[in-house]
Amino acid sequence: MPDDVVLKIEKLAYGGEGLGFVDGKVCFVEGALPGETVRARVSQSKQNYAKGRLLEVLEKSHHREEPPCPYVQDCGGCQYQHLAYSEELRWKEIQVREHLERFLKLPGSRVSPIRSGASPYGYRNSVTLHETAPSPKPQQFGFVGRDNRTTLCVDNCLITDPRLRPVFTEKRLLRKGEDRISLRVGENGMIFSGREDQLFSMRIGDESILTSSRGFFQNNLEITRQIGQTARAWVQSAQPRLFADLYAGAGTFTILAAEGVPELMCLEESPASFGALKENFRIRGLKADLIEGLAEKSFPRYLKRKPRENIFVFVDPPRTGMSADLSEFLAQEPSLRHLVYLSCHLGTLTRDLGRILAKKRHEILEVIPFDMFPRTKHIEAAVFMRRL
Ligand SMILES: C[S@@+](CC[C@H](N)C(=O)[O-])C[C@H]1O[C@@H](n2cnc3c(N)ncnc32)[C@H](O)[C@@H]1O
């Protein structure tokens, strides 16, 4: 392939790169948009695909916009600020549909329209800031850059909750010996770091849910509320005997979705999140089996000890997905009648669902993409399945 190429961009691939063809070979160009003709310098040429660096947009898409953030060229956080938000949503929905069609042979009609929040900016309630090399800026920390190596000092970040923004210009945020810090803004506007293990509350719709400063919490609470509502409708349609939340965190989705289910069980491996989970149930007077442990080990053991019928399983694993053992178990165990898989990574989602569907005992009823992370390449998807 020549060093510089001219190509027409046909679509936006999962990850946000423009995709076109050069001499029949797929070429990904970061920053290029569908409908555009661009000139790119080939930076990588493999057998099946190439990657190019955008040099010039020869014919511009009418959906191209000026990114509002001045750091967007160097910061690794956002991939879609140069695209109209309605188009970002449209392409994310297509990415989910195509991914599931391609890897699971799922008819595209099972994927519902993507759901989004009121604004694509100001939604993130947490940030992780990394130490920089010494710089002229007063603050010596920032975000990991687009090159994945350098750290970029920023005075602001438009996708974060405005109440977090003062931290970007603090002089002494990192203490001696720290190379990063994670901060989250709570319901009352106070900012908490993971330095001390503290419980504080986050508001999702009508619920005030405690989280630990050292544990996981969802980043976009408006979308979390929408997912909770959707899951609640699915649970109500299924009328289960037991709701089992296997990657429960602080218990968010049991609280949002499982009201009225006769029995509840939550499983969580992080001791910090488990502490918040127990407290959330104690305050509400909710009775549940709460287990601190690994889903893949503890869930099969739990059901062996206490067998049940008509179980609704909710899984929301980390980006890495579920273990093969757990997918196998969920596929085989007949008492697990319904399953919701909430995922922030299409690759591990289709891998895990592929393992479940391979047993031919389940069908996917609905997939809903949610724009949990506007302006970035990330997509959240909720998949509702039932046992045949
Ligand atoms: C994506 S978060 C979801 C948490 C929760 N559903 C929520 O919305 O807040 C994944 C959670 O799974 C926990 N986790 C990770 N691996 C696990 C495992 N093998 N077994 C049980 N929990 C695990 C993490 O500590 C984290 O709290």
CATH-assigned fold name of the largest domain: Rossmann fold
Estimated structural class:
alpha+beta
Head-to-tail CA distance between termini: 50 Å
Q: H/E element string? A: EEEEEHEEEEEEEHEHEHEHEHEHEE
Share of helical residues:
10-25%
Report the count of strand segments: 19
Gross morphology: globular
Any idea what the radius of gyration is? Answer: 22 Å
Which regions contain 5 or more consecutive residues with pLDDT less than 50?
A: none
Helix run count: 7
Strand order of the largest sheet: 15-14-13-16-17-19-18
CATH superfamily of the largest domain: Vaccinia Virus protein VP39
Average pLDDT, rounded to a whole number, is 95
CATH class call of the largest domain: Alpha Beta
Oligomerization status of the protein chains: single chain
Overall number of structural domains: 3
Proportion of residues in β-strands:
25-35%
Key descriptive features of the protein:
single chain; 388 residues; alpha+beta; OB fold (Dihydrolipoamide Acetyltransferase, E2P); Rossmann fold; five-stranded mixed beta barrel; 23% helix; globular; binds S-adenosylmethionine
3D structure, described in words:
- The chain has helices at 85-104, 221-238, 252-257, 271-284, 295-305, 324-332, 346-357; strands at residues 4-12, 18-22, 25-30, 37-45, 49-59, 126-131, 141-144, 151-152, 180-185, 191-193, 199-204, 207-212, 242-245, 263-268, 289-292, 311-315, 336-343, 362-370, 380-387.
- The protein has three domains: 4-64, OB fold (Dihydrolipoamide Acetyltransferase, E2P); 86-118 and 219-387, Rossmann fold, CATH 3.40.50.150; 126-212, no CATH class.
- The longest helix has 20 residues, at 85-104.
- The protein is built from seven helices and 19 strands.
- It is α+β, with helices and mostly antiparallel strands and 388 residues long.
- The strands form four sheets. It has a seven-stranded mixed beta sheet, sandwiched between helices. Strands 1-2-3-5-4 form a five-stranded mixed beta barrel.
- The relative contact order is 0.11.
- The N and C termini lie far apart (50 Å).
- β4 (37-45) and β5 (49-59) form a beta hairpin.
- It binds S-adenosylmethionine.
- The site of S-adenosylmethionine has 20 residues, from α3, β14 and α5.
